[in-house]
Structures are given as C-alpha cells and as structure tokens.
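Let us work through a complete example step by step.
Step 1: write down the sequence.
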Amino acid sequence: MATKKIDVINGAYSQLRISGLTVQATPEDIMVALDRLEDMAAEWLSRNVNVGYYFEDEPDPDSIFGVDRAYKQAFETNLAVNLVPDFNKAVPQTLAARASATYSTMSSSVAHVCEVPYPSRMPRGSGNTFRYNRWRRFYPGGG
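Step 2: predict the structure and record it as tokens.
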C-alpha cells in the first residue's frame, strides 16, 4: 500500500504528541500541515534533495506521497519542527536533533557526487609504469 500525504501529516502530529504537545488535528490544522509539507518539499528540491515527492497544483491530503519509505521519518520529524511554532511552543531539543539527523541522512544519500579528474599538474607517482609514454610524468588534462 502506498503512503499518502495524510499519513505523513498524522506522523508529524504524532511526533508532536511524543514531544509533549497533546492536540488532535482539526481539518484546518491538516490543511496548514499540508501546505507546510508542500513548501518544505519544494525547498528541499531547490537544494537538490530530490526524493521523488509528488507535487500537485491543488494539494490533497489523500494523494500519494511518492517518497521512498526510508525518507518518511525525515519528512515527519521536519514537518513536526515546522508545526511547533503554531502552538506557541519551543522546539524540543530531542525533536530538533532527530529532525536534523534524518535530514542529514536523507540529503547525503541522494547527493550526486561528481568525479573530478586529476589536474594536469599532479604527478603520477613513482609506482606507475611509463610503458607507453615514458616522458609523461603528470596526469593528462583535467585542469
């Protein structure tokens, strides 16, 4: 069964209950949380953290979330951190630490690492053989 956006929102409110805020989410609270979820996912996408979130012109809480299950906790905890100020409370330290850790793990796992060639001023070293071009002591091209 695919995860829906309402599941992530309910998970975020559950994180808030664990952190000491006992509140039942009203339909207005759910719509506010959905807007925050969309904004948060758009901000992360602008930072090149592309995890496959399904964006919609008119967000619906019952639509499919689209993100891998491994990143669901990152969305829940960070959404909970974004919702805490609505209750006029400070973000609990444990929730902030968990949100930071899950975001860091998620962003590092989806980061695109480019290979950079060695610069032409870098020597090949004494352990390399110069079979084909014995006078080529430095790496070719690259910078």
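Step 3: interpret the result. The helical segments are 5-18, 27-46, 72-83, 93-109.
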